[in-house]
Structure formats: structure tokens, C-alpha cells
């Protein structure tokens, strides 16, 4: 079966990456692409790398134009998807790459986003653990169970899913204490979208590293807390059982996230038990891979791939676990996660149209 697809926000980075991956998907027909200010212009004018889609013209983003397709991807700024999702009842599968349907807590939404709160959808990180994981348990529950057959999917925030995948195994296994997490991320500016902003100009970024959203203000914080509470087996938003100091830093690379996350080791836990928790969680996964002991990833190793590479260290001097994770923010962080989740929802092979291999140099 071939599924007809519409992609909104098609002139942006996330929309463009969704289109790039869908263009090689054998079960998908990209029928419609939409935008706001760029409507009426050829798609190729804004996505010149998408040569196979040169025949498409950007249409207005309206519920009427998006309706009537089998699948709709919404790659819109935060707070803009909700106005369309309620009107897409005739669409079998809607996937939101924005934040509008990620959070289960309205209090968290009000505190970090504001505006109308919309119902939470199935969270598009298939490998994310759900509930505690004990030693010897090789088939822990994961988020992919909630994605099979789903009709509404919320693709993750790229920083949020990176940190959550980094630490969820330790939280689920009870080997780290999630009440004192510290995460510092080197991130490329493509995660901020295509809008012209002074702090994203090349003259501001090249040769510099620039922190932003410092001091607990980044919007991905409640998303991380939500995911780690699910890994722990609790859901009480606002509780202090999952606390995180989260600092992203813009660095001069177009794509990529390198997240360094640390958390205290629970008393009495051995080094072997710590590593075993991550091995159990990801040993059978295709796209999330734990590197051999003593090895750590580079962002260069995941560019263009739907892969998260994880390096794990036990710092006994500080009594903390350090996890270093590299992803391509536009692939595994956004579009790849969305398409991987789409495949699960449709009953297709989970890896269809997704590459395990990066692009080098």
C-alpha cells in the first residue's frame, strides 16, 4: 500500500529533513507541501538539495489543504500545530514535530510554553524505557509499544530525547539518582529553525561557543523530566524526584548534539551493574548503540544517520555516572524519530527509509 503524505512547514529545516527521508520511502507518496510566508513558491527554491521533489510547489498551510491525506506531518513552530490538529479528524495518522502534544502536564506547559494546552499524544522515541528494569530482565517495556497502531504521534524535542535516552537505563534500573542530574549539551543552530535571528548569524557563531536558556529555562526540561519519570515508573509532574540542571551551548556546526549528562551513583551499586543497565536497555536496538568501554562518540559519526551513539563512564572520584551521547538533531532528534515512529504506527519495518550510517568526512 502507498500512503499519501502532506508535510507542513516544508520550507524549514525540520520539514526539509522529513521530506529528504520520506523521498526514499517505498511506501510513501509525498503529495502536498505547505508553508506560511513562502506559500506559492517552488519547494526547490527553499530546499535546493531535494532534487527529486522539484515538481512540488508550496501551498498555504490550512486545515483544508492538509486534510484528505493518509498521513500529515506538522513541522511548525511550537504553539502552532494545535490550531490544525483538531481539524484533521479525517487523517488516519498525524505526526507533530512541534511541542504542542508532547507534555502530559498542563502546569508544565503553562510554565515553559504558555498558550493553549493540547492533549498529549504517543511520544515518538521508540527506544525509551517505560517503567523499572531489573537485573536479568531482557524485555523491558519501551515506548514503541505505545506507537504500534498509533494514530497521533508527538515527535520529540531533539535535546530532550538525547538526554532521556542517555539516562533512562540508569533510572529504570535504579543505579543512578535522578534527583541531581546535570546535562551540558553542545548543539548546532539548525535546531533553532530557519528564522533569522541575530544570535544565529554566522558572524555571531563562528569561532565561538554561546550558552543559552541558562538557569533552568529551556523548554525541553519538563519533557526530559516526564520521560525519566516514566522510566522510573512514576508520573507525578512537579515532584522533585527528577531534577535537572540543563545547559545547552550553541557551537559552530550546522547539525548535531553532543550531550554530556551526569547523575549520582546509588549507594552499593557496582561498576558492572551500572554498565549492565545500559547494555540491557540497548543491546538489541538498531539505532541506539552503547559503545565499548572507554569509547565515546563524536557528532561527526552520526551526521545524516538515525543513530544515537552512547559512551558511558563511571566516575568513582565524583561518585557519578557520565554519559556522552551524539545524535544528528535533525534526524534521530526530529525527522528520523518521526519516521521511525510512523513506520511502527503503520506496521512497517521500523528501519524503513532510515540510515544507520552517517556521512563522513
Short description:
The protein contains eleven helices and 14 strands.
Describe the structure.
The protein has 361 residues and is α/β, with parallel strands linked by helices. Helix content is 26%, strand content 20%. The chain has 11 helices and 14 strands. It has a 7-stranded parallel beta sheet, with helices on one face. A 7-stranded mixed beta sheet has the order 9-10-8-11-14-13-12.
Distinct helical segment count: 11
Secondary-structure element order, N to C: EHEHEHEHEHEHEHEHEHEEHEEEH
Distance between the termini: 37 Å
Number of strands: 14
The share of residues in extended strands comes to: 15-25%
Biggest sheet, open or closed, and with what strands and sense? 7 strands, parallel
Helix-residue proportion: 25-40%
Strands of the widest sheet, in order across it, are 3-2-1-4-5-7-6
Low-confidence stretches: none
Class of secondary structure makeup: alpha/beta
Spatial extent as radius of gyration: 20 Å
The average pLDDT value, as a whole number, equals: 95
Shape: globular
Work out the oligomeric state of the chains in this entry.
single chain
